[in-house]
Structures are given as C-alpha cells and as structure tokens.
What we know:
CATH superfamily of the largest domain: Hotdog Thioesterase
Shape: globular
Distance between the termini: 42 Å
CATH topology of the largest domain: Thiol Ester Dehydrase, Chain A
CATH class of the largest domain: Alpha Beta
Number of domains: 2
Number of helices: 7
Structural class: alpha+beta
Strand order of the largest sheet: 1-3-4-5-2-7-10-9-8-6
Radius of gyration: 18 Å
Number of strands: 10
Amino acid sequence: MDVAALAGLDLGTRTVSYTDRDVILYALSVGAGAADLDLVFERDLRALPTFALTLGVWAADEPRRLGAFDASEALHGAQTLRTLAPLPIPGEVAMTGRIADVWDKGEHAFVDVEVETDYFAATYSLFVRGHGGWGGARGPSASPVPVEERPLGRCRTSPEQAALYRLTGDRHHIHIDPDAAREAGLGTPVLHGLCTLGFAAREVAAAAGAHPCDLRELAVRFAAPVRPGDVLDLSGAVPAPGEVRFMARVGESAVLTRGLARFA
C-alpha cells in the first residue's frame, strides 16, 4: 500500500488497559517530581491528560505496519488532543482509529491519523519523507501564529529521558539506537515528540493558573528535534483566561511552534 492510498482507511478498534503504575511512570517521564503527589502517589492519583496520547500510539504505527513507508522515513510532525472525560485509574480504554487525511507536500507527505474514545480525541500527524509528489491536495496551510516573548518556564530533560519515556510504550529505535538515528538522518537519538509535549503541557498550566490535569485542548507543531539532556525554554502569551499560546526553544532553535493549550 502506498501513502496516497491510505486516506480514509479504517484502522479498526483496540482496547488498551493500564494501571496506576503506568500513570505514575508517565508523569515521571515528563518531568513530574516527588512533590507532585497527585501525579506520582497512588493515594490521590490523577492522570495527566497527555498520558492519553501514549494509549493511541498504536494507530499512528499502523501505516508503517501496512508497508506504506519505513520507520526511518517518518517523523512526528504535529499533534492535537481534546479531552472529553478524566481517564479512570486503573483503566481500560476502547479506541477507534482511522486515517483522516493524506496531504501531498511535494517531495514529502503528511498523514493524519485520528483516534477517538469516550475519554479523548487525538490526531497524530506524521511527516513522511520522500513519499509526496503524486499530485494530491496540499492541505490547509497554517500561517505562523505570533507568540509574545513572555517567559513561561524552563524544563530540563535528562540524558536518560528518552530511555525512560520508551517505557510508556513508544519503542521506536530512533530514540535509543545511534545507528537507527543516523539512518533516519537525525545524527544521534532524539527525544520523543510526545515527551517534549508532555513537559510543555505540564509547565504552561501554571501560566494559565491551572492544574495540568485540567487540560481540555492541546495542539502543537514539532519544528525540530530535541535531544535527551536538552533544556526547553518556553515562551508565549495568555490571551484569554485558561488559554495559553506557546512555543519552545532549545538555545536559539524553535522546537515546538504554534502551541495552544486550553484549561478548564
């Protein structure tokens, strides 16, 4: 199956179960600490809404499993999330997946994979190198959103961050294996985009005066790779109560752009 033929494909359903251990491990893997008791202590535990994105990764992997492209040709390009209800702990979540759209970007392609559940809806947008050029629709073009240069926080990742985050379920080799990273044109292993996003979503909640678990909507573009051990500098604006527009840099390089988070 080629990439152009993926559009509209039903990926079926899958039920994923998890325990409080998975919820705590995820929180630790996106920077929560021992003082964040409701994120890391089972007594009053709440699931970070971005934990949901680990549950739907199976659908984002389906186009590769179908042979549409090789793992070394695809990178995570963008992500959206809408939370519909708090995730239960422990939980068992039934999900449906589909390929919503495939966009021809010239030499490359974008594949939008949608996952829906009673608890959340998410779109995983995959940037696929070398699989464009069939004459398909280019898709909507988003103008850059100006972001006010107000500091929103700093997140320090560790050299072991990707090795830890892999335990949440995304075991793609580019995050741990130097050979796989070189084959994908990345040079050295990179941090998972969803790990970077988990750090950012948790950090920007404070700018909205909200708890990270009160996240209702999230969207972001992954603009450049983050390496384990990098420091993320977040900046942005709060244009309305509970709403944060943000970006993240590593040094002078923008790594997250067009970020939007809305909290209850």
